Amino acid sequence: MTVYEQELRKLFEHSDLVDRPQFSGRVCVGDLGKDLRVRAEFLSTHISSQYDAIRLTVLNRTEGVVDRTLLRFQDVWGKKQVPNNPNFRSGVIPHLWDDYGKVEWYAYHPTAADYAALRDAVGQYLSAFRERTPELKQSGPKLVYICAPLRGDVTNNVEFARQKAQEVFAEGNIPICPHLLFPPVADPDDPAQDEKARAMGLRLLESCQQMNVYGPVWTDGMWQEIYNRALGGNGKMTNRKILYGYQIHDGALAIVPEEQQVVRMVFTLYNAGASYQNISDALNWQNIPFSPEASLWNKHKVKRVLENTRYIGKDGYPVMIDESDFQAVQEKISEKGVKYQAQGKVTPLDRLKPYFRCTCNGKMVRLGGHWQDSGKLYLKCECCGIAVTLDADATIQEIIRQFQAHKCQGPDAYAPSAEVIRLNNAINRGLERPDSPEAVMSLILQGAAARYDCCPQPISEYEPSDRPVDVDWHRFRRVVSYITVASDATVSLTFTDDNFTGKDK
Question: Which residue in 102, 187, 188, 241 has the fewest CB atoms around it within 10 Å?
Answer without folding.
Answer: 102
